[in-house]
Design a protein that fits this description.
By secondary structure, the protein is an alpha/beta fold.
Length: 377
């Protein structure tokens, strides 16, 4: 199959979208598919065996890490030259519009992925007045696609309530060989605990951004003075958080990837994730695969795989006290922590990437077949 992927986000930016795309491109390579990726400039020219076309982009003022390609960009020459069977627009905001427009001109079927709760983020950024206009804009984009894929059932229901059409769930997987409890190592624990490997080590992984509510971890440090915290990731509020959490008990590593990231997970004791606007929560699943008990908000994508009291603990998503109470519960009951981690690992073992990409290809084939029927009619 020939697949053209058009994404608003790719390397060097590191997030769940980029990680998913990298796993997908590796899968395409292994299975002999031919693919092309269009993305904002700044990344590699190739990934696996996929050619990457970098397009001129400008940073989003309120989020400089995110670079937007003009929706008026002419991507038709790349698409026509590649002649794909299907076009997959990933998290369309700006470049995705260009992809949709040229796909229609070329008569090609389009799959779109909804992956980021931008309206919810706007509220977290103090821009709540933009919430409804953003929903209107995103609905207009996605309803042009032949199929809209959501990463979780929770997200699908939200989009359905907002008037999005032709929805289906395409969940995410985890590399259970890379993310594994056996990667636990003393040197990593020493590094992440700031030289106190005997202390309980809490771990956060993700963007260091306002919408992730990493500042809630200050409450945990205040209540549990004996614990250490590692923050893996980077983002616009890192300097602010380093001041807020900078009492010598918190280690900021910046971005980690590959085996280094896997070692960081395995070195910790508890995974803490305050964010409440996740459409899936890849890092939560990676923590589970690493055998960690997780504490996550009872909202969004994690509801699809974090079962409260079984594979992790969920807290009321807008209640900071409930977050601290959930952390207290897991820290105060070592038997519970061990049980949660073991069940989480067993559950993650059934969520490998291969089956998820098989599901994606079934979706591709469905829209291709439907498009052929329309053309024949």
């Amino acid at each position: 199959m020939r697949i053209a992927l058009i994404t608003e986000t790719f390397l060097p930016k590191v997030d769940g979208i980029t990680n998913t795309l990298c796993y997908l491109l590796d899968y395409l390579d292994r299975h002999g598919h031919t693919s092309l990726l269009l993305a904002p400039a700044g990344g590699p020219d190739w990934y696996a065996k996929t050619r990457v076309i970098g397009l001129n982009a400008i940073p989003l003022p309120i989020y400089p890490e995110l670079k937007l390609v003009s929706p008026r960009t002419d991507v038709g020459v790349y698409l026509a030259g590649f002649n794909p069977d299907v076009i997959h627009v990933v998290n369309p905001v700006s470049l995705g519009i260009a992809g949709l427009r040229h796909a229609r001109k070329l008569g090609l079927p389009v799959v779109a992925s909804y992956q980021t709760d931008i309206p919810g983020f706007a509220v977290r950024w103090g821009l709540g007045l933009l919430r409804d206009p953003l929903w209107t804009y995103l609905r207009w984009i996605h309803n042009q696609a032949d199929l809209n894929l959501c990463p979780s059932q929770t997200t699908l229901l939200e989009l359905e309530a907002q008037g999005f059409e032709r929805l289906a769930v395409w969940s995410r997987g985890v590399d259970t060989q890379r993310f594994h409890p056996s990667r636990r190592a003393h040197d990593w624990r020493l590094r992440l605990s700031a030289g106190h490997p005997e202390a309980t080590l809490l771990l956060y992984v993700g963007r260091v951004a306002r919408e992730k509510r990493v500042d809630w971890l200050r409450d945990v440090l205040d209540v549990f003075p004996e614990v250490r915290l590692a923050v893996v990731g980077d983002g616009p509020v890192r300097p602010e958080l380093q001041r807020l959490l900078g009492d010598g008990r918190t280690t900021f590593t910046g971005y980690l990837s590959g085996n280094e990231l896997a070692c960081a997970y395995a070195a910790a004791d508890v995974f803490v994730f305050p964010a409440a606007n996740e459409t899936f929560g890849n890092v939560v699943l990676e923590a589970m695969a690493s055998g960690l008990p997780v504490v996550a908000a009872g909202s969004g994508g994690p509801l699809d795989f974090v079962r409260d009291g079984e594979t992790g603990l969920l807290f009321a998503p807008e209640d900071r006290g409930a977050f601290v109470a959930a952390v207290r519960r897991v820290l105060g009951d070592p038997a519970l922590a061990r049980r949660l981690g073991a069940v989480a690992r067993a559950d993650a073992e059934m969520r490998g990437w291969s089956a998820k990409f098989d599901d994606l290809f079934s979706a591709y084939q469905s829209v291709i077949s439907h498009s052929a029927i329309k053309c024949a009619a």
